[in-house]
Amino acid sequence: MKFNNEELVQLALECGANRAAIIDVSKIVFSNELRHMCKLNACGKYGTNWMCPPGVGTLDELKARINCYNHGLVFQTVQQLEDSFDFEGMMIAKENIEVVLKNILKKIKDELPFEDLFPLGAGACSICKECTYVKGEKCRFPEKAFPSVEACGIDVKALVTSCGIPYYNGKDTVSYVGMILFKE
Fold first, then answer.
1. How far is Cα 114 from Cα 24, in angstroms, rounded to an integer?
2. How far apart (Å, rounded) are the C-alpha atoms in residues 110 and 95?
3. Residue ranges per domain, the chain?
4. pTM score, two decimals?
5. Distance of CA 129 to the CA centre of its chain
6. Separation of alpha carbons 25 and 84, rounded Å
7. What would the pLDDT profile of 20-32 be if each residue is shown by its tens digit?
8. What crossing angle do the helices spanning 87-111 and 5-14 adopt, rounded to 10°?
9. Euclidean distance between CA atoms 10 and 19, whole angstroms
10. C-alpha 157: how far from its chain's center?
11. Model confidence pLDDT, tens digit, residues 106-135
């Protein structure tokens, strides 16, 4: 299926993204160090969530899955914070990118004939208050849950800069990045 880059970028912007671009999957940079950072568990989600390591799969498994796609719609949201310690603002921004991702997915599914999409968000999946991973049970919502760009070992800074999207958006801002992979 042929697609129109500008149409997809415009769709993302209309859904609330501040910036968007198309990337060829072959240009995605993976980082073993990112997965190592996950294992250090700074965010507290390692081993507690199906969409975070190790539950989301190995880096090799994720690379293989991602490399089945041709292109990705990369998008970024930027939120102004009161100051660099505005944790509440950061959480609002995290919720915002989740809404933007869901809106983009819905519009793509409603308006474009893509058959196979792989959405990647920002941060841990938060659909359930407590993920079934910790109980050793299957995910309750596998069709709605998606891993983060970072959980897949993708270097976010390299990703956005290769698309012409700035990584840093100014003092007292937080930027989140998502991506929807698709086949042509």
1. 16
2. 23
3. 5-182
4. 0.93
5. 20
6. 33
7. 999 999 999 999 8
8. 130
9. 9
10. 13
11. 999 888 878 899 999 998 998 999 999 999
